[in-house]
Amino acid sequence: MSAHSPTRGIDHVGFTVPDLEAASRFFTEAFDAKTLYDGIKRTDQPFAGPKAEAMLGVPPDTALVTMRMMRLGNGPGIELFEMRCTDQRPAARPSDFGLQHVAVYVDDIDYAIQRFLSAGGTILTGKNELLGLEKGRGNFWCYGRTPWGSVIELISYPGPQEYEATTFLRRWTPV
Predict the structure, then answer these.
(1) Nearest 5°: phi and psi at 140?
(2) Residue 43 three-state SS
């Protein structure tokens, strides 16, 4: 048995989006995301059929039309999938089972909110102070929805957090 952890951290987060180009524009305008590559181009044959169904766990009539990997600052990447199927559903709500949101660390939450809004997103309640063991001077968060309905949290915690007095472990924060 190895003394090293088999886990380094999150590599990327995947979003299924209704329009790859519009979603790419949103992530670029809201977060300065950069396109790394298109794993499946719109001009390629869509990835569909029994192999796609087995590998991706999607319904039989699903076609993966295009896929793009984007770099997002100094953290996990964003992988965008444009898929088509007859019973496609809207994005999950935070109260639904499964992945409910992705948090993006920002240095200036007010500026980040304005960029998010300008890129076409909506902010649910504006900025909120972090509470409980996360509270500290200048520590804020807010939830927003992308144009296609996925929830993204904007978070900033430059001040010490109360949990830090209870453990030597620290949250990973992008540099």
Answers:
(1) -135, 165
(2) coil
Answer whether 17's CB lies under 8 Å from 23's CB: yes
What residue numbers bound the domain in which 167 lies? Answer: 100-175
- For residues 64 and 91, give the distance between their C-alpha atoms in angstroms, rounded to a whole number: 17
State the DSSP H helix or E strand holding residue 66, giving kind and residue range, or none if neither: strand 63-71
Does the CA dihedral 21-22-25-31 come out positive or negative? negative
Are both 75 and 120 inside the same structural domain? no
pLDDT digits (tens, 9 = 90+) for 139-158: 999 999 999 999 999 999 99
Q: Which amino acid is at 63?
A: A
Global pTM?
A: 0.88
Tokens of 42: 């719109």
Residue 93 lies in a domain: no
| Judgement on whether residues 133 and 174 belong to the same structural domain of the protein | yes
Of 103, 99, 60, residue with least CA distance to 83: 60
Q: Which residue has the tokens 């003394």?
A: 3
The neighbour count for residue 12, using CB atoms within 10 Å, is 14
